[in-house]
Protein backbone atom coordinates (compact mmCIF):
# COMPACT_ATOMS: atom_id res chain seq x y z
CA UNK A 1 0.00 0.00 0.00
CA UNK A 2 1.16 3.49 -0.85
CA UNK A 3 1.58 5.77 2.10
CA UNK A 4 4.77 7.86 1.91
CA UNK A 5 4.80 9.99 -1.20
CA UNK A 6 7.34 12.40 -2.67
CA UNK A 7 6.00 15.02 -5.06
CA UNK A 8 8.33 16.10 -7.85
CA UNK A 9 6.98 19.44 -9.03
CA UNK A 10 5.05 22.23 -7.35
CA UNK A 11 2.82 23.51 -10.15
CA UNK A 12 -0.96 23.35 -10.44
CA UNK A 13 -1.22 19.57 -10.79
CA UNK A 14 1.21 18.89 -7.94
CA UNK A 15 -0.55 21.39 -5.70
CA UNK A 16 -4.07 20.05 -6.17
CA UNK A 17 -3.04 16.40 -6.24
CA UNK A 18 -0.86 16.84 -3.16
CA UNK A 19 -3.71 18.38 -1.17
CA UNK A 20 -6.10 15.66 -2.28
CA UNK A 21 -3.65 12.90 -1.35
CA UNK A 22 -3.12 14.40 2.10
CA UNK A 23 -6.88 14.66 2.46
CA UNK A 24 -7.16 10.96 1.59
CA UNK A 25 -4.78 9.98 4.37
CA UNK A 26 -1.54 9.73 2.41
CA UNK A 27 1.64 11.21 3.75
CA UNK A 28 3.32 13.57 1.33
CA UNK A 29 6.74 13.61 2.95
CA UNK A 30 8.63 15.86 0.55
CA UNK A 31 8.18 18.31 -2.30
CA UNK A 32 10.85 18.94 -4.91
CA UNK A 33 10.87 21.99 -7.14
CA UNK A 34 13.65 23.88 -8.87
CA UNK A 35 12.13 27.08 -7.56
CA UNK A 36 12.65 27.49 -3.82
CA UNK A 37 9.56 29.63 -3.40
CA UNK A 38 7.24 27.10 -5.05
CA UNK A 39 8.82 24.18 -3.21
CA UNK A 40 8.47 25.92 0.16
CA UNK A 41 4.94 27.10 -0.47
CA UNK A 42 3.60 23.68 -1.38
CA UNK A 43 5.65 21.85 1.27
CA UNK A 44 4.27 24.21 3.86
CA UNK A 45 0.70 23.57 2.68
CA UNK A 46 1.20 19.81 2.90
CA UNK A 47 3.30 19.86 6.10
CA UNK A 48 6.14 18.25 4.17
CA UNK A 49 9.86 18.83 3.73
CA UNK A 50 11.07 20.53 0.63
CA UNK A 51 14.19 20.38 -1.50
CA UNK A 52 15.41 22.28 -4.52
CA UNK A 53 18.16 19.82 -5.36
CA UNK A 54 17.62 16.45 -7.00
CA UNK A 55 20.29 14.98 -4.74
CA UNK A 56 18.25 16.07 -1.78
CA UNK A 57 15.24 13.97 -2.82
CA UNK A 58 14.55 11.25 -0.24
CA UNK A 59 15.09 7.62 -1.13
CA UNK A 60 12.60 5.98 1.24
CA UNK A 61 9.21 6.90 -0.26
CA UNK A 62 6.63 4.34 -1.40
CA UNK A 63 5.99 6.39 -4.49
CA UNK A 64 7.38 9.34 -6.45
CA UNK A 65 4.77 11.36 -8.31
CA UNK A 66 6.34 13.46 -11.04
CA UNK A 67 4.14 16.39 -12.08
CA UNK A 68 6.43 18.47 -14.27
CA UNK A 69 6.16 20.16 -17.62
CA UNK A 70 6.98 17.45 -20.21
CA UNK A 71 10.28 19.02 -21.22
CA UNK A 72 11.42 19.22 -17.57
CA UNK A 73 10.41 15.61 -17.00
CA UNK A 74 12.53 14.43 -19.91
CA UNK A 75 15.47 16.54 -18.84
CA UNK A 76 15.38 15.57 -15.16
CA UNK A 77 14.47 11.90 -15.53
CA UNK A 78 17.97 10.36 -15.47
CA UNK A 79 18.89 12.33 -12.36
CA UNK A 80 15.59 11.62 -10.62
CA UNK A 81 15.90 7.86 -10.83
CA UNK A 82 19.63 7.70 -10.06
CA UNK A 83 20.13 5.81 -6.81
CA UNK A 84 16.37 5.20 -6.64
CA UNK A 85 16.23 2.38 -9.19
CA UNK A 86 14.10 0.20 -6.92
CA UNK A 87 11.55 2.94 -6.21
CA UNK A 88 8.06 3.30 -7.72
CA UNK A 89 7.81 6.31 -10.05
CA UNK A 90 4.75 7.63 -11.85
CA UNK A 91 4.18 10.72 -13.94
CA UNK A 92 0.95 12.66 -14.36
CA UNK A 93 1.38 13.78 -17.97
CA UNK A 94 -1.38 13.03 -20.43
CA UNK A 95 0.87 13.18 -23.42
CA UNK A 96 3.91 11.24 -22.16
CA UNK A 97 4.14 7.49 -22.79
CA UNK A 98 4.77 5.16 -19.87
CA UNK A 99 7.88 3.86 -21.61
CA UNK A 100 9.95 6.88 -20.69
CA UNK A 101 10.62 4.98 -17.42
CA UNK A 102 11.64 1.74 -19.13
CA UNK A 103 15.26 0.73 -18.68
CA UNK A 104 15.64 3.06 -15.72
CA UNK A 105 13.34 1.43 -13.17
CA UNK A 106 11.57 -1.79 -12.25
CA UNK A 107 8.43 -0.16 -10.84
CA UNK A 108 6.74 2.56 -12.78
CA UNK A 109 3.50 3.81 -14.19
CA UNK A 110 1.28 6.74 -15.11
CA UNK A 111 -1.23 8.49 -12.88
CA UNK A 112 -3.12 10.97 -15.07
CA UNK A 113 -5.92 13.04 -13.53
CA UNK A 114 -7.75 14.55 -16.49
CA UNK A 115 -8.78 17.94 -15.19
CA UNK A 116 -7.95 21.63 -15.55
CA UNK A 117 -6.14 22.83 -12.45
CA UNK A 118 -5.72 26.48 -11.54
CA UNK A 119 -4.11 27.51 -8.28
CA UNK A 120 -6.96 29.90 -7.50
CA UNK A 121 -9.73 27.32 -7.63
CA UNK A 122 -10.40 24.27 -5.46
CA UNK A 123 -10.98 21.02 -7.34
CA UNK A 124 -13.53 18.40 -6.41
CA UNK A 125 -11.54 15.24 -7.09
CA UNK A 126 -14.63 13.08 -6.76
CA UNK A 127 -15.55 14.20 -10.29
CA UNK A 128 -12.05 13.87 -11.79
CA UNK A 129 -11.39 10.82 -13.97
CA UNK A 130 -8.04 9.15 -13.36
CA UNK A 131 -6.34 7.22 -16.13
CA UNK A 132 -3.75 4.79 -14.84
CA UNK A 133 -1.19 2.55 -16.48
CA UNK A 134 1.63 0.53 -14.94
CA UNK A 135 4.62 -1.61 -15.84
CA UNK A 136 3.34 -4.56 -13.77
CA UNK A 137 0.18 -5.99 -12.26
CA UNK A 138 1.15 -5.13 -8.69
CA UNK A 139 1.89 -1.53 -9.61
CA UNK A 140 -1.38 -1.30 -11.53
CA UNK A 141 -3.29 -2.52 -8.50
CA UNK A 142 -1.52 0.01 -6.29
CA UNK A 143 -2.32 2.86 -8.66
CA UNK A 144 -5.96 1.87 -8.94
CA UNK A 145 -6.22 1.70 -5.20
CA UNK A 146 -4.60 5.10 -4.77
CA UNK A 147 -6.72 6.74 -7.47
CA UNK A 148 -9.79 5.09 -5.95
CA UNK A 149 -9.17 6.99 -2.72
CA UNK A 150 -9.51 10.24 -4.63
CA UNK A 151 -12.21 9.52 -7.19
CA UNK A 152 -14.73 6.85 -8.16
CA UNK A 153 -13.78 7.37 -11.82
CA UNK A 154 -10.67 5.27 -12.31
CA UNK A 155 -9.90 3.92 -15.76
CA UNK A 156 -7.05 1.93 -17.23
CA UNK A 157 -5.67 3.52 -20.38
CA UNK A 158 -2.74 2.58 -22.54
CA UNK A 159 -0.15 5.18 -23.52
CA UNK A 160 -1.63 5.13 -27.01
CA UNK A 161 -5.15 5.89 -25.72
CA UNK A 162 -3.87 8.52 -23.34
CA UNK A 163 -2.15 10.40 -26.16
CA UNK A 164 -5.50 10.87 -27.84
CA UNK A 165 -7.32 11.49 -24.57
CA UNK A 166 -4.92 14.35 -23.99
CA UNK A 167 -5.49 15.90 -27.43
CA UNK A 168 -9.23 15.49 -26.93
CA UNK A 169 -8.91 17.22 -23.55
CA UNK A 170 -6.97 20.10 -25.11
CA UNK A 171 -9.88 20.67 -27.49
CA UNK A 172 -12.68 20.20 -24.96
CA UNK A 173 -11.04 22.22 -22.20
CA UNK A 174 -8.14 24.46 -23.24
CA UNK A 175 -9.57 25.42 -26.61
CA UNK A 176 -13.15 25.76 -25.33
CA UNK A 177 -11.80 28.04 -22.60
CA UNK A 178 -10.00 30.10 -25.22
CA UNK A 179 -13.31 30.58 -27.00
CA UNK A 180 -14.61 32.01 -23.71
CA UNK A 181 -11.53 34.24 -23.55
CA UNK A 182 -12.09 35.56 -27.07
CA UNK A 183 -15.74 36.16 -26.18
CA UNK A 184 -14.61 38.08 -23.10
CA UNK A 185 -12.26 40.20 -25.23
CA UNK A 186 -15.13 41.28 -27.48
CA UNK A 187 -17.41 42.05 -24.56
CA UNK A 188 -14.74 44.00 -22.70
CA UNK A 189 -14.08 46.16 -25.73
CA UNK A 190 -17.77 47.04 -25.84
CA UNK A 191 -18.15 47.52 -22.10
CA UNK A 192 -20.48 44.57 -21.55
CA UNK A 193 -19.78 42.48 -18.43
CA UNK A 194 -18.65 38.89 -19.18
CA UNK A 195 -21.17 37.74 -16.58
CA UNK A 196 -24.01 37.97 -19.13
CA UNK A 197 -22.37 35.09 -21.01
CA UNK A 198 -22.32 32.62 -18.10
CA UNK A 199 -25.73 31.03 -18.49
CA UNK A 200 -25.05 30.44 -22.17
CA UNK A 201 -21.71 28.84 -21.31
CA UNK A 202 -23.33 26.65 -18.68
CA UNK A 203 -26.12 25.53 -20.99
CA UNK A 204 -23.62 24.76 -23.77
CA UNK A 205 -21.73 22.49 -21.38
CA UNK A 206 -24.90 20.89 -20.00
CA UNK A 207 -26.30 20.12 -23.44
CA UNK A 208 -23.51 17.70 -24.30
CA UNK A 209 -24.50 15.54 -21.33
CA UNK A 210 -27.64 14.75 -23.31
CA UNK A 211 -26.74 15.26 -26.97
CA UNK A 212 -23.57 14.43 -28.89
CA UNK A 213 -21.82 17.80 -29.47
CA UNK A 214 -22.28 17.66 -33.24
CA UNK A 215 -26.05 17.36 -32.69
CA UNK A 216 -26.05 20.13 -30.10
CA UNK A 217 -24.50 22.62 -32.51
CA UNK A 218 -26.48 25.81 -33.13
CA UNK A 219 -25.65 29.24 -34.57
CA UNK A 220 -24.90 30.80 -37.93
CA UNK A 221 -22.16 28.38 -39.05
CA UNK A 222 -24.19 25.17 -38.84
CA UNK A 223 -27.11 26.86 -40.66
CA UNK A 224 -24.56 28.38 -43.05
CA UNK A 225 -26.22 31.75 -42.56
CA UNK A 226 -23.86 33.71 -44.82
CA UNK A 227 -25.53 37.03 -43.98
CA UNK A 228 -24.62 36.69 -40.33
CA UNK A 229 -21.21 35.13 -40.94
CA UNK A 230 -20.13 37.90 -43.30
CA UNK A 231 -21.44 40.62 -41.01
CA UNK A 232 -19.48 39.09 -38.13
CA UNK A 233 -16.33 38.84 -40.24
CA UNK A 234 -16.67 42.53 -41.11
CA UNK A 235 -17.11 43.45 -37.46
CA UNK A 236 -13.91 41.56 -36.61
CA UNK A 237 -11.85 43.36 -39.27
CA UNK A 238 -9.85 45.25 -36.63
CA UNK A 239 -8.80 41.99 -34.90
CA UNK A 240 -7.43 39.91 -37.79
CA UNK A 241 -6.41 36.95 -35.61
CA UNK A 242 -9.97 36.59 -34.30
CA UNK A 243 -11.37 37.14 -37.76
CA UNK A 244 -9.28 34.29 -39.13
CA UNK A 245 -10.31 31.96 -36.30
CA UNK A 246 -13.96 32.91 -36.79
CA UNK A 247 -13.77 31.98 -40.44
CA UNK A 248 -11.85 28.74 -40.00
CA UNK A 249 -13.97 27.47 -37.12
CA UNK A 250 -17.20 28.34 -38.96
CA UNK A 251 -16.02 26.38 -41.99
CA UNK A 252 -15.05 23.47 -39.80
CA UNK A 253 -18.52 23.49 -38.19
CA UNK A 254 -20.27 23.56 -41.52
CA UNK A 255 -18.05 20.83 -42.94
CA UNK A 256 -18.88 18.47 -40.09
CA UNK A 257 -22.61 18.77 -40.76
CA UNK B 1 -50.20 44.49 -21.85
CA UNK B 2 -49.25 41.81 -24.31
CA UNK B 3 -51.53 38.82 -24.43
CA UNK B 4 -52.30 37.66 -27.96
CA UNK B 5 -49.12 36.71 -29.77
CA UNK B 6 -48.43 35.51 -33.32
CA UNK B 7 -45.22 33.59 -33.84
CA UNK B 8 -43.53 33.99 -37.20
CA UNK B 9 -41.21 31.00 -37.54
CA UNK B 10 -41.27 27.48 -36.15
CA UNK B 11 -37.59 26.72 -35.61
CA UNK B 12 -35.74 26.15 -32.35
CA UNK B 13 -36.11 29.69 -31.01
CA UNK B 14 -39.82 29.93 -31.92
CA UNK B 15 -40.49 26.51 -30.41
CA UNK B 16 -38.85 27.15 -27.05
CA UNK B 17 -39.99 30.74 -26.78
CA UNK B 18 -43.54 29.82 -27.75
CA UNK B 19 -43.75 27.15 -25.06
CA UNK B 20 -42.31 29.49 -22.47
CA UNK B 21 -44.76 32.26 -23.39
CA UNK B 22 -47.70 29.87 -23.13
CA UNK B 23 -46.37 28.70 -19.78
CA UNK B 24 -46.24 32.33 -18.64
CA UNK B 25 -49.91 32.84 -19.42
CA UNK B 26 -49.63 34.43 -22.87
CA UNK B 27 -51.87 33.31 -25.67
CA UNK B 28 -49.97 32.28 -28.78
CA UNK B 29 -52.86 32.42 -31.21
CA UNK B 30 -51.09 31.54 -34.43
CA UNK B 31 -47.88 30.12 -35.86
CA UNK B 32 -46.61 30.97 -39.31
CA UNK B 33 -44.01 28.87 -41.11
CA UNK B 34 -43.28 28.30 -44.80
CA UNK B 35 -43.11 24.59 -44.06
CA UNK B 36 -46.51 23.11 -43.32
CA UNK B 37 -45.11 20.33 -41.17
CA UNK B 38 -43.21 22.72 -38.88
CA UNK B 39 -46.11 25.15 -38.67
CA UNK B 40 -48.55 22.37 -37.74
CA UNK B 41 -46.24 20.73 -35.26
CA UNK B 42 -45.58 23.89 -33.28
CA UNK B 43 -49.19 25.15 -33.54
CA UNK B 44 -50.34 21.83 -32.20
CA UNK B 45 -47.93 22.04 -29.29
CA UNK B 46 -49.13 25.54 -28.41
CA UNK B 47 -52.83 24.90 -29.15
CA UNK B 48 -52.67 27.64 -31.77
CA UNK B 49 -53.79 28.03 -35.37
CA UNK B 50 -51.22 27.74 -38.10
CA UNK B 51 -50.72 29.24 -41.52
CA UNK B 52 -48.20 28.73 -44.29
CA UNK B 53 -49.16 31.87 -46.19
CA UNK B 54 -48.16 35.38 -45.19
CA UNK B 55 -51.62 36.59 -46.26
CA UNK B 56 -53.12 34.17 -43.76
CA UNK B 57 -51.35 35.80 -40.81
CA UNK B 58 -53.88 37.31 -38.42
CA UNK B 59 -54.09 41.06 -37.99
CA UNK B 60 -55.46 41.26 -34.45
CA UNK B 61 -52.50 40.17 -32.31
CA UNK B 62 -50.94 42.36 -29.61
CA UNK B 63 -47.51 41.34 -30.80
CA UNK B 64 -45.77 39.57 -33.66
CA UNK B 65 -42.59 37.75 -32.70
CA UNK B 66 -40.44 37.04 -35.73
CA UNK B 67 -37.98 34.20 -35.12
CA UNK B 68 -36.58 33.48 -38.58
CA UNK B 69 -33.16 32.97 -40.08
CA UNK B 70 -31.81 36.48 -40.82
CA UNK B 71 -32.02 36.06 -44.59
CA UNK B 72 -35.66 34.93 -44.37
CA UNK B 73 -36.50 37.86 -42.10
CA UNK B 74 -35.08 40.36 -44.59
CA UNK B 75 -36.86 38.69 -47.49
CA UNK B 76 -40.24 38.36 -45.79
CA UNK B 77 -40.30 41.67 -43.93
CA UNK B 78 -42.17 43.82 -46.47
CA UNK B 79 -44.89 41.19 -46.83
CA UNK B 80 -45.16 40.57 -43.10
CA UNK B 81 -45.87 44.17 -42.22
CA UNK B 82 -48.20 44.90 -45.15
CA UNK B 83 -51.67 45.66 -43.82
CA UNK B 84 -50.33 45.35 -40.27
CA UNK B 85 -48.62 48.75 -40.12
CA UNK B 86 -50.16 49.57 -36.74
CA UNK B 87 -49.12 46.27 -35.15
CA UNK B 88 -46.22 45.69 -32.76
CA UNK B 89 -43.44 43.61 -34.33
CA UNK B 90 -40.26 42.33 -32.70
CA UNK B 91 -37.52 40.04 -33.94
CA UNK B 92 -35.36 37.69 -31.89
CA UNK B 93 -32.15 37.93 -33.91
CA UNK B 94 -28.95 38.83 -32.11
CA UNK B 95 -27.27 40.15 -35.18
CA UNK B 96 -30.08 42.16 -36.77
CA UNK B 97 -30.43 45.87 -35.97
CA UNK B 98 -33.74 47.21 -34.74
CA UNK B 99 -33.82 49.64 -37.64
CA UNK B 100 -34.89 47.00 -40.13
CA UNK B 101 -38.43 47.85 -38.96
CA UNK B 102 -38.05 51.60 -39.39
CA UNK B 103 -40.22 53.15 -42.07
CA UNK B 104 -42.51 50.14 -42.13
CA UNK B 105 -44.08 50.31 -38.69
CA UNK B 106 -44.79 52.60 -35.75
CA UNK B 107 -44.36 49.96 -33.03
CA UNK B 108 -41.36 47.73 -33.13
CA UNK B 109 -38.46 46.32 -31.18
CA UNK B 110 -36.08 43.47 -30.52
CA UNK B 111 -36.59 40.60 -28.11
CA UNK B 112 -33.33 38.62 -28.03
CA UNK B 113 -33.06 35.61 -25.72
CA UNK B 114 -29.36 34.79 -25.64
CA UNK B 115 -29.33 31.03 -25.39
CA UNK B 116 -28.59 27.92 -27.45
CA UNK B 117 -31.84 26.20 -28.35
CA UNK B 118 -32.05 22.61 -29.58
CA UNK B 119 -35.39 20.94 -30.17
CA UNK B 120 -34.34 17.88 -28.18
CA UNK B 121 -33.57 19.73 -24.96
CA UNK B 122 -35.85 21.68 -22.62
CA UNK B 123 -34.64 25.17 -21.72
CA UNK B 124 -34.91 26.73 -18.30
CA UNK B 125 -35.83 30.29 -19.25
CA UNK B 126 -35.24 31.52 -15.71
CA UNK B 127 -31.51 31.45 -16.52
CA UNK B 128 -31.77 32.99 -19.99
CA UNK B 129 -30.77 36.64 -20.34
CA UNK B 130 -33.12 38.70 -22.51
CA UNK B 131 -31.82 41.75 -24.34
CA UNK B 132 -34.57 44.10 -25.37
CA UNK B 133 -34.70 47.26 -27.46
CA UNK B 134 -37.69 49.21 -28.73
CA UNK B 135 -38.63 52.12 -30.96
CA UNK B 136 -40.52 53.91 -28.16
CA UNK B 137 -40.78 54.05 -24.39
CA UNK B 138 -44.17 52.31 -24.27
CA UNK B 139 -42.92 49.45 -26.41
CA UNK B 140 -39.76 49.14 -24.30
CA UNK B 141 -41.86 48.89 -21.16
CA UNK B 142 -44.04 46.20 -22.74
CA UNK B 143 -41.02 44.17 -23.82
CA UNK B 144 -39.41 44.41 -20.40
CA UNK B 145 -42.62 43.29 -18.81
CA UNK B 146 -42.99 40.36 -21.19
CA UNK B 147 -39.35 39.28 -20.82
CA UNK B 148 -39.72 39.66 -17.07
CA UNK B 149 -42.43 37.00 -17.07
CA UNK B 150 -39.92 34.53 -18.52
CA UNK B 151 -36.66 35.46 -16.82
CA UNK B 152 -35.29 37.69 -14.08
CA UNK B 153 -32.37 38.60 -16.36
CA UNK B 154 -33.72 41.37 -18.57
CA UNK B 155 -31.31 43.90 -20.02
CA UNK B 156 -31.66 46.83 -22.37
CA UNK B 157 -29.15 46.66 -25.21
CA UNK B 158 -28.72 48.86 -28.25
CA UNK B 159 -28.43 47.32 -31.71
CA UNK B 160 -24.73 48.19 -31.62
CA UNK B 161 -24.20 46.32 -28.33
CA UNK B 162 -26.29 43.39 -29.48
CA UNK B 163 -24.13 42.94 -32.59
CA UNK B 164 -21.11 42.37 -30.40
CA UNK B 165 -23.09 40.34 -27.86
CA UNK B 166 -24.02 38.02 -30.69
CA UNK B 167 -20.43 37.58 -31.90
CA UNK B 168 -19.35 37.01 -28.31
CA UNK B 169 -22.09 34.38 -27.98
CA UNK B 170 -20.93 32.65 -31.16
CA UNK B 171 -17.47 32.28 -29.64
CA UNK B 172 -18.59 31.29 -26.13
CA UNK B 173 -21.29 28.88 -27.26
CA UNK B 174 -21.15 27.77 -30.90
CA UNK B 175 -17.37 27.67 -31.14
CA UNK B 176 -16.89 26.20 -27.67
CA UNK B 177 -19.38 23.49 -28.64
CA UNK B 178 -17.42 22.83 -31.80
CA UNK B 179 -14.33 22.26 -29.68
CA UNK B 180 -16.37 19.59 -27.85
CA UNK B 181 -17.35 18.14 -31.21
CA UNK B 182 -13.74 17.95 -32.39
CA UNK B 183 -12.83 16.34 -29.08
CA UNK B 184 -15.61 13.80 -29.61
CA UNK B 185 -14.30 13.05 -33.09
CA UNK B 186 -10.86 12.17 -31.73
CA UNK B 187 -12.28 10.02 -28.95
CA UNK B 188 -14.65 8.18 -31.27
CA UNK B 189 -11.81 7.33 -33.61
CA UNK B 190 -9.95 5.76 -30.70
CA UNK B 191 -12.97 4.01 -29.20
CA UNK B 192 -13.07 6.08 -26.02
CA UNK B 193 -16.56 7.13 -24.84
CA UNK B 194 -17.15 10.92 -24.94
CA UNK B 195 -18.59 10.60 -21.44
CA UNK B 196 -15.09 10.63 -19.91
CA UNK B 197 -14.75 14.25 -21.08
CA UNK B 198 -17.85 15.58 -19.31
CA UNK B 199 -16.38 16.45 -15.93
CA UNK B 200 -13.56 18.34 -17.63
CA UNK B 201 -16.08 20.23 -19.74
CA UNK B 202 -18.17 21.05 -16.68
CA UNK B 203 -15.18 22.25 -14.67
CA UNK B 204 -13.98 24.39 -17.59
CA UNK B 205 -17.38 26.10 -17.67
CA UNK B 206 -17.56 26.46 -13.89
CA UNK B 207 -14.10 27.98 -13.62
CA UNK B 208 -15.05 31.09 -15.56
CA UNK B 209 -17.70 31.90 -12.96
CA UNK B 210 -14.76 32.60 -10.63
CA UNK B 211 -11.83 33.51 -12.87
CA UNK B 212 -11.70 35.57 -16.07
CA UNK B 213 -11.22 33.03 -18.90
CA UNK B 214 -7.74 34.30 -19.76
CA UNK B 215 -6.66 33.60 -16.17
CA UNK B 216 -8.36 30.21 -16.16
CA UNK B 217 -6.38 29.03 -19.18
CA UNK B 218 -4.31 25.85 -18.71
CA UNK B 219 -2.69 23.33 -21.04
CA UNK B 220 0.29 23.14 -23.40
CA UNK B 221 -0.42 26.32 -25.40
CA UNK B 222 -0.41 28.78 -22.50
CA UNK B 223 2.80 27.19 -21.12
CA UNK B 224 4.12 27.12 -24.67
CA UNK B 225 5.13 23.52 -24.17
CA UNK B 226 6.51 22.95 -27.66
CA UNK B 227 7.20 19.25 -26.99
CA UNK B 228 3.53 18.56 -26.40
CA UNK B 229 2.27 20.92 -29.09
CA UNK B 230 4.49 19.37 -31.76
CA UNK B 231 3.60 15.85 -30.70
CA UNK B 232 -0.11 16.73 -30.92
CA UNK B 233 0.35 18.32 -34.34
CA UNK B 234 2.06 15.13 -35.55
CA UNK B 235 -0.78 13.00 -34.20
CA UNK B 236 -3.29 15.15 -36.09
CA UNK B 237 -1.47 14.79 -39.41
CA UNK B 238 -4.25 12.62 -40.86
CA UNK B 239 -6.90 15.27 -40.11
CA UNK B 240 -5.39 18.42 -41.65
CA UNK B 241 -8.36 20.66 -40.81
CA UNK B 242 -8.07 19.80 -37.11
CA UNK B 243 -4.32 20.12 -37.27
CA UNK B 244 -4.62 23.64 -38.66
CA UNK B 245 -7.16 24.65 -36.02
CA UNK B 246 -4.97 23.15 -33.28
CA UNK B 247 -2.03 25.24 -34.43
CA UNK B 248 -3.92 28.49 -34.89
CA UNK B 249 -5.82 28.27 -31.61
CA UNK B 250 -2.63 27.39 -29.72
CA UNK B 251 -0.90 30.43 -31.17
CA UNK B 252 -3.86 32.61 -30.30
CA UNK B 253 -3.77 31.32 -26.70
CA UNK B 254 -0.08 31.96 -26.36
CA UNK B 255 -0.36 35.41 -27.91
CA UNK B 256 -3.00 36.49 -25.42
CA UNK B 257 -0.76 35.65 -22.48
Automatic annotation (TrEMBL), chains A, B:
This is DUF2520 domain-containing protein. Residues 4-84 form the Pyrroline-5-carboxylate reductase catalytic N-terminal domain. It comes from Phocaeicola massiliensis B84634 = Timone 84634 = DSM 17679 = JCM 13223. Pfam families: DUF2520 (PF10728), F420_oxidored (PF03807). Residues 128-253 form the DUF2520 domain.
Amino acid sequence: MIKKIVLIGAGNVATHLGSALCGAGCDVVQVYSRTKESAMELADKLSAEYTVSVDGIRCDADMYIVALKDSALQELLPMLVKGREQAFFVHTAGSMPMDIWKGYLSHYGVFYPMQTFSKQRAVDFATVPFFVEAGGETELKMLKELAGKLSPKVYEATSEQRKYLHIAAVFACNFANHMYALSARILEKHHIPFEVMLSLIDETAKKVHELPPAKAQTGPAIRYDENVINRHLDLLADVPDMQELYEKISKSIYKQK
